[in-house]
């Protein structure tokens, strides 16, 4: 019983560390690559006409293929690490058997042969328990690999819906410009998406915002609408801070 407990404890510690440091990281990288791949596919399909007209189809296909290659490499790594519990358990079991033999030799060198029956019982017990420990370890690693995707889905489902915070001032008409003054923005617990942005959307002029996916184009619009609040800096409409407006 103490030997079986030692085997189970050693297996738990090793597999926990592997799952926490390797499987979870692989799962997180897979979620990021899948998200980017979905964004590329969505933008390609919704903008198919201008993409074909501008002759940039190959560029978009290459972007998609890069993410696909990243995903395939991550999947290969996941399969390799998922196969690690069995060799780890076999190695620990071998160490336990050798340790048991060495302990018997130290306690009774002359009667080692008489202890072969006990050694056989130990080996039989190990053979019986190893498949169960292996299955538990693999399940734990699968859970940790899929945990980032589950966390992302939970955040999307349970996250609060943005709502505009209204002030008391009424803007009768738009006269001059919507101005960003040293505006920075970051989602909670993430890096800055926009940092020290200064720009003006002037009345009567067309302002185009271009950039890669995730560059902050939609975030700028959401801040103008008052759905997102800047992390620092301010946004004004004709000189009035946007949070003061009804």
Choose one word for the global shape: elongated
Largest sheet: 4 strands, antiparallel
Percent of residues in helices comes to 55-70%
Report Rg. 30 Å
Mean pLDDT: 79
Strand order of the largest sheet: 2-1-3-4
Q: Which runs of at least 5 residues are low in confidence (pLDDT < 50)? A: none
Please indicate the percent range of residues in DSSP E strands (runs of 2 or more).
Answer: 5-15%
- Give the class from helix and strand content and strand pairing: alpha+beta
The total of helices stands at: 6
Q: H/E element string?
A: HHHHHEEHEE
The total beta strand count reads 4
Terminal CA distance reads 72 Å
Oligomerization status of the protein chains: single chain
Explain what the structure shows.
- The protein has 6 helices and 4 strands, in the order αααααββαββ.
- The chain is of the alpha+beta class and 246 residues long.
- Strands 2-1-3-4 form a 4-stranded antiparallel sheet, with helices on one face.
- The longest helix has 45 residues.
- It is elongated.
- The N and C termini lie far apart (72 Å).
- The model has no long low-confidence stretch (mean pLDDT 79).
Spell out the blueprint of helices and strands.
Elements: H1 2-46, H2 48-54, H3 57-82, H4 85-107, H5 116-158, E1 177-185, E2 194-202, H6 217-224, E3 232-237, E4 240-241
Antiparallel strand pairs: 1-2, 1-3, 3-4
Helix pairs in contact: 1-3, 1-4, 1-5, 4-5
Which key terms come to mind for this protein?
4 strands; about 10% strand; about 250 residues; alpha+beta; four-stranded antiparallel beta sheet
